[in-house]
UniProtKB/TrEMBL annotation:
Keyword Cytoplasm in annotation: no
UniProt-listed Pfam families: Rhodanese
PANTHER family: FAD-DEPENDENT OXIDOREDUCTASE, PYRIDINE NUCLEOTIDE-DISULPHIDE OXIDOREDUCTASE
Coiled coil: none
TM region positions: 6-24
InterPro entries per record: GlpE_sulfurtransferase (IPR050229), Rhodanese-like_dom (IPR001763), Rhodanese-like_dom_sf (IPR036873)
Key words, A-Z: Membrane, Transmembrane, Transmembrane helix
Protein name: Rhodanese domain-containing protein
């Protein structure tokens, strides 16, 4: 009986955690991201170099998340920037790091899969 209750509790905790993750991720994708903005923005991939090499969006720039706070970012501060990563959580952090560093036109694009739809013509 105890084992079954523990399994049930674990399932509930995991389910709530996953739903919370999805909610936070989806609420933080900027609604302003659209085809026109994508075409007129720098697409910033904040995944690791290894992830980037395995597949990335066309013409995207890769600066891994761990470097955003410390390196000189080779992007002009007045440019539109759309961040993305593999699941959408690092892109949320990246947006706020860039804003703190003086980049004002930064948008969270979510995951690579959230942005793929804008690149069908490539």
């Amino acid at each position: 009986m105890k084992a079954r209750n523990l399994v049930l509790i674990a399932i509930i905790v995991l389910s709530v955690s996953y739903m919370s993750y999805r909610l936070i991720r989806n609420l933080n994708i900027d609604s302003k991201v659209n085809q026109e903005l994508v075409e007129n923005s720098i697409i910033l991939d904040v995944r690791t170099n290894w992830e980037y090499k395995r597949g990335a969006l066309p013409n995207s720039v890769n600066i891994k998340m761990s470097d955003l706070k410390t390196i000189d970012i080779p992007i002009e501060k007045d440019k539109n920037i759309i961040t993305y990563c593999s699941h959408g959580l690092r892109s949320i952090k990246a947006k706020y790091i860039l804003k703190k560093r003086g980049y004002y036109h930064v948008y969270n694009g979510g995951s690579i899969h959230d942005l793929e739809k804008y690149f069908n013509n490539y």
